[in-house]
Specification:
Shape: elongated
Mean pLDDT: 78
Low-confidence stretches: 1-9
Strand content: 15-25%
Helix content: 25-40%
Number of strands: 18
Largest sheet: 2 strands, antiparallel
Number of helices: 12
Structural class: alpha+beta
Strand order of the largest sheet: 1-2
């Protein structure tokens, strides 16, 4: 038998052709899996290490035991009142909650004015506590939308570009939606989300489907269809997806299909759903990422399998 490379062409194990699919799905060391927490696609061999560093995983602060996302932990520990810190004057270790009172009375603190270690501003020793709590531009504050601890001077950028709960414009209907809720909005609420016409295989806004039937040449020129059997197995209509489902489950599958095209707002390209997270991270607003647009995928491209990636 001839060797057939598994999913992305990186596995050289030889097998019978009928064994390829099961190998790609279950045993190929170079198959891709999706992290259930952050939804990024990664090699199965790297999954164990990823689980230890996933930025969306829930972890606990070792000092106050508060639960939060791993991406929020570093910022939280800089301001956690239960974290252990040292007095700058006597090097005594204590909880941050007790540091300000201690430093104001520390026997080795002889200066009438001191420099804020966070922002570099010189303030009166007795005013340091108030400065750190209310005026320091480098103090940590919680984002009111997502709860993440952010340096005050960086809050404007965080609120506009990084906050998971920030409002963003839907690329299809232009309504404001929460950034983290975009896919649910596209799947269930947006009437401008592109959907495939069964008859002419063109993408049209969901709100135009009914009107399109009267204009679609494929719909108007085909003979009357026979009675449809909802138990029939039919092929997903998204390009490059070869997954078959029961007819009555087709619509639900196509909402979750990893090949469902999503329009990138900055560059305007239609990107497969499984690649959208990576594309958004590196997209510079140009249309140079042709390799992974829906139209650019080669006919023989072997991407992720839907059953494994659409849960």
């Amino acid at each position: 038998s001839s060797g057939i490379n598994a999913e992305y062409g990186d596995c050289d194990e030889e097998m019978e052709r009928e064994e390829v699919f099961a190998h790609q799905e279950q045993t190929c060391p170079n198959r891709q899996v999706v992290c259930g927490t952050c939804r990024h696609s990664i090699l199965v061999s790297e999954f164990h290490n990823h689980s230890k560093t996933c930025p969306q995983a829930i972890v606990s602060c070792e000092f106050c035991k508060q639960d939060m996302k791993r991406s929020q932990l570093a910022g939280h520990e800089k301001s956690c009142l239960q974290a252990l810190v040292k007095c700058r004057h006597c090097a005594r270790e204590m909880r941050r909650n007790d540091l300000l009172d201690h430093e104001s009375s520390c026997t080795k603190n002889n200066a009438s004015k001191i420099v804020c270690e966070e922002c570099g501003v010189t303030v009166g020793r007795k005013k340091l506590a108030n400065h750190l709590a209310n005026k320091c531009q480098q103090r940590m504050v919680d984002c009111l939308e997502c709860g993440q601890a952010v340096v005050l001077v960086e809050m404007k950028i965080h609120s506009k570009e990084q906050c998971e709960n920030r409002l963003t414009e839907c690329v299809f209907c232009k309504k404001k939606v929460v950034f983290n809720d975009r896919e649910a909005h596209w799947d269930d609420f947006c009437d401008q989300t592109p959907v495939w016409c069964d008859d002419c295989l063109k993408l049209i806004p969901r709100s135009d489907v009914w009107q399109h039937k009267f204009e679609c040449p494929g719909y108007n020129n085909k003979p009357s269809p026979p009675q449809l059997n909802l138990d029939d197995m039919v092929m997903c209509r998204h390009r490059r997806c070869d997954y078959k489902v029961r007819r009555d489950s087709l619509e639900e599958h196509e909402k979750k299909c990893v090949y469902r095209p999503i329009k990138c707002s900055p560059c305007g390209q239609l990107i497969p759903r499984f690649y959208m997270g990576f594309h958004e991270e590196y997209c510079d607003g140009s249309d140079d990422d042709f390799d992974f647009t829906i139209d650019a995928l080669a006919d023989d491209y072997q991407g992720p399998q839907c059953p494994e990636y659409s849960d």
